UniProtKB/TrEMBL annotation:
The keyword Metal-binding applies. It holds the Pfam family IDM1_C. One of its GO terms (molecular function) is chromatin binding. Keywords: Metal-binding, Zinc, Zinc-finger. This is PHD-type domain-containing protein. GO terms for cellular component: nucleus. It comes from the Eukaryota. Residues 15-60 form the PHD-type domain. GO terms for biological process: positive regulation of transcription by RNA polymerase II. Gene3D superfamilies: Zinc/RING finger domain, C3HC4 (zinc finger).
Amino acid sequence: MRISKDMQLSERETDDLCRECGLGGDIFPCKMCPRSFHPACVGLPGVPSEEWFCDNCTILVQKEKALAANKNAKAAGRQAGVDSIEQILKRAIRIVPICDDLGGCALCKKKDFNNSVFDERTVILCDQCEKEYHVGCLRSEWQVDLKELPEGEWFCCDSCSEIRSSLDKMISEGAQPLSESDLDIIRKKHESKGLIMDTDTEIRWQLVAGRSATADGNSLLSSAVPVIHQSFDPIIEAHTGRDLIPEMVHGRRPKEGMPGQDYSGMYCAVLTVGSNVVSAALLRVMGGDVAELPLVATSMDLQGLGYFQVLFSCIERLLVSLKVKHFMLPAAHEAEAIWMKKFGFSKIPQDQMEAY
């Protein structure tokens, strides 16, 4: 970041694709970093004539200003005159081994596969729960006799098929009005802070999937990305340098023949006030056993007003209707108390988490 403050990036050094939607065209770069954007993807009417910083760099600048009196910043070597390498070496680093028992065929538990030709060891993945199966194991264990890899979607059981149908129906219905009890939560939060809730502006929630999103759906997803970036630093993919947050929000899969994570199973739930996305949550429904909430965020200036609490209730009711047994999320240590006391979550043992 210190280097980038003194750099003037040329057009050659900036991204040639929009970081929000992944497409090219009439894009412009952030003043501090190489990221480029379509004006519409970041809520601008056109290319800004003055210096413009992306949400991530704006937040970084704000964080840097707050470091001067921050003890943790000194410990991390992020203050002037503090040797960062010395500070790092003073601290213990915990390396967590990855369990070798994870993954593999859901029936035989073995990890071998053969995808060069179609045979007994060819692996197929369920398009809802994402479990892996050997074609031969499906034939011997479940009497599912596949002659070739099916075109389109494939589901391992009726439950996964029914869940996908229900989710697709929810998406097709578009924005849903909030119940009076949900609106009352937001109203009381406003009153507790001495604010008056705007009753003329409609508040709705909506489930969107990038793989099947309409133009309006893609617009909502593009609006959700900066909301999440306000609370989370970019999650960088090591071999490409790409920020994975837009990839997850838009539910993208790797291009044909290219390595990378497949996020096509991701859903994004958004809460809108009028036409503005104020709260967003990423959701994966891994069949009837477990659903996961990897990232949630609310606009910085609207936090504490009950918006995410209401969005969470809508998601929870959806999962109850789908008969999903368990709802999981990764929580930072400082946020554990909020999730456990306010939302009713509890810690689970490591072996149980690995099983899920």
